[in-house]
Structure to design on (270 residues):
């Protein structure tokens, strides 16, 4: 039996994982609104595009108001917008670290706050937040990205408890490496003190990305989650996303840490 048609808002839908999710959900027969910074009035592959800057309270309010005005209600929010700041933690300025959290964490908070009044009134809805394996097992030299995804984990689990009595379901998607433009985003200026360990770690992650599946794998999972009445909280995707958290739980802390350092070639002096 086909899933009922739903109204869905997908952030960060102009490229990569977000575009794949929005197009798949539209192909499933749902009415899908996708967002991008300069997307107003565009329509692609059945997705109605709305302009959105997740770092702006005003932009978020205008986006959600536009969706509710055009569709009358909203069934599902998919918080996908985010970006990577790679490099040593000391490489980044406070402003750069702040910007990562503004997009990856507070962007989610803004969207959730904006959609909750209508979902609470309907006593129904789903909120699906894009987390990451990096929110469970930190990746060396991805410090502020890791921290932002750890924040998404704690926030989403708390939100799930608070919204369950109101009929609103909260879930996360926790992918490992996926082949997307995420890895091509710019890095801050690099301090020489962290070379060559930073370069080896980033080269290792680039190798994972080159062998990784494409974003259609994530889109297929979202299709299943949207169809479920009560999706589970954590939805891991890719082999490493299942394996690494399990190893972290099974192995002594020192052994797991040594394995991570060896995998990223961090114990060599030069």
């Amino acid at each position: 039996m086909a899933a009922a048609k739903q109204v869905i808002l997908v952030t960060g839908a102009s490229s990569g994982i977000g575009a794949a999710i929005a197009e798949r959900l539209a192909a499933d027969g749902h009415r899908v609104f996708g967002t991008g910074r300069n997307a107003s009035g565009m329509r692609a592959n059945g997705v109605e595009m709305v302009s959105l800057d997740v770092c702006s309270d005003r932009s978020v309010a205008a986006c959600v108001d536009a969706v509710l005005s055009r569709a009358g209600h909203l069934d599902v929010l998919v918080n996908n917008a985010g970006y990577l700041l790679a490099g040593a933690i000391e490489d980044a300025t406070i402003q750069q670290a702040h910007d990562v959290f503004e997009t990856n964490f507070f962007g989610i908070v803004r969207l959730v706050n904006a959609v909750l009044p209508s979902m609470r009134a309907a006593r129904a809805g789903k909120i699906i937040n894009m987390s990451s394996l990096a929110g469970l097992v930190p990746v060396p030299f991805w410090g502020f990205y890791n921290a932002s995804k750890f924040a998404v984990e704690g926030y989403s689990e708390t939100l799930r408890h608070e919204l369950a009595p109101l009929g609103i379901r909260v879930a996360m998607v926790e992918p490992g490496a996926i082949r997307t433009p995420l890895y091509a985003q710019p890095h801050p200026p690099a301090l020489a003190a962290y070379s060559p360990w930073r370069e080896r770690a980033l080269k290792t992650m680039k190798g994972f990305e080159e062998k990784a599946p494409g974003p259609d794998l994530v889109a297929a999972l979202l299709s299943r989650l949207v169809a479920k009445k009560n999706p589970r909280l954590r939805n891991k995707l890719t082999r490493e996303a299942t394996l690494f958290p399990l190893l972290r739980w099974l192995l002594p802390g020192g052994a797991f840490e040594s394995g991570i350092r060896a995998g990223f070639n961090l114990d060599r002096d030069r």
In short: The mean pLDDT is 92.
